[in-house]
Design brief:
It is a single chain. The protein is an all-alpha fold. The chain has two domains: 108 residues, no CATH class; 222 residues, Heme Oxygenase, Chain A. The protein has 16 helices and no strands. The longest helix has 32 residues. The radius of gyration is 20 Å and the shape is globular.
Length: 349
């Protein structure tokens, strides 16, 4: 497959998934209608707010997280057959606001905020990374690689990796000076340095095809549970709001700092399963790239932003801590599911 063909395959759009409950059904009701029909659908935002009030655990609720993901996906490449004008439709934005409020309230109850001096942000990020006691999913897959489990893992990750870097790129026009230059240095590598066939999303699609998986964006959306959706929704929720630009920078910094070793292990797992260098290209690329990126992201980008806008220092650490918290939950869900002999998806592949 040529680079152009690989790029097209990675951006083919899937259809809308089935609803997981009342909230996602409400969003789907809107998206399946003409955008100018929203006024005839009552008050969707009020309906959403009423349903959200009954959600006991927003971070674990498949329905709420799917509804929020559907709203955010309109700002990327959307779904086949959806009217593009829904992206900024006030009725749908009202629904999204109700979902976001529940999401951030729940996250704020789990992730502490801490004050930090701007010049200490880089050091604090590395301290957060060192203190993280989450389970090592990558180590488990490297030590005892299982093809079925690895395919599940890749299906989970496809929701982000097939649009890798895009959520963080929302921060580009919101930064200035040296932090913006540092962000562009990191993002340039994520997008293949101008070569479509080396874009990380394209490399991941190649890995998916090697595993006999559907490489269309969102092909596995209906199978992915809340724990996975929450980790992707966090990136979109932070990236799409200028007021949260500090948090998306902190998220990216921690993402880069914690990436190189796990990706080395994932590549090793695939090799032990008998796959060749073409199949492991995505993981091998990240071992080299992210080792270079971690100091740029922690010091030039994150600490640089804190020094230029000191009021964002705490937000930067919050974004990093929230990323670790949701990633730990994701890893624990997969490992616990496999330990119990069941699929980590809502239904088996």
């Amino acid at each position: 497959m040529s680079g152009a063909q690989a790029s097209r395959a990675a951006t083919d759009r899937a259809s809308l998934p089935p609803a997981a409950g009342a909230l996602s059904a409400l969003v789907l009701e809107l998206l399946e209608a003409e955008a100018d029909a929203a006024a005839r659908l009552g008050d969707p935002a009020a309906r959403a707010a009423g349903i959200v009030e009954a959600v006991a655990s927003p971070l674990d609720d498949d329905d709420l997280q799917l509804a929020l993901y559907l709203c955010y996906e309109l700002h990327y490449r959307s779904f086949d057959g959806v009217d593009p004008s829904w992206e900024w439709n006030p009725a749908l934005l009202g629904v999204r606001a109700a979902l976001e409020a529940a999401f951030f309230t729940a996250l704020g109850q789990q992730v502490d905020r801490e004050d930090v001096e701007p010049g200490e942000v880089g050091e604090r990020l590395f301290a957060l990374e060192a203190a993280d006691q989450g389970p090592s999913l990558s180590r488990r897959l490297e030590i005892a690689p299982d093809l079925g489990q690895f395919r599940e893992f890749v299906a989970h990750r496809s929701l982000y990796q097939l649009k890798e870097a895009d959520p963080h790129s929302w921060a580009i026009p919101r930064l200035a000076g040296a932090p913006k230059a540092a962000l562009l240095e990191v993002q340039g590598d994520e997008y293949g340095g101008g070569r479509a066939e080396r874009m990380h999303s394209t490399l991941f699609a190649k890995t998916m095809r090697a595993l006999d998986l559907d490489a269309r964006e969102n092909a596995y959306l209906e199978l992915v549970p809340a724990t996975t959706l929450a980790s992707v929704n966090l990136m979109s929720a932070l990236g799409l709001h200028r007021s949260r630009r500090g948090a998306i920078v902190g998220h990216l910094a921690m993402f880069e700092m914690t990436s190189a070793l796990p990706n080395r292990r994932y590549g090793n797992a695939m090799r032990r399963l008998g796959f060749d260098d073409e199949a492991t290209d995505f993981y091998d690329e990240h071992v080299e790239a992210d080792a270079v990126h971690e100091n740029i992201a922690a010091y030039d980008l994150a600490e640089g932003l804190a020094k230029s806008e000191p009021e964002l220092a705490a937000d930067i650490l919050f974004g990093a801590a929230a990323m670790l918290f949701l990633e730990d939950r994701f890893a624990r869900h997969l490992l616990d599911s496999w330990q119990d002999g069941r699929t980590s998806l809502r239904r088996p592949l």
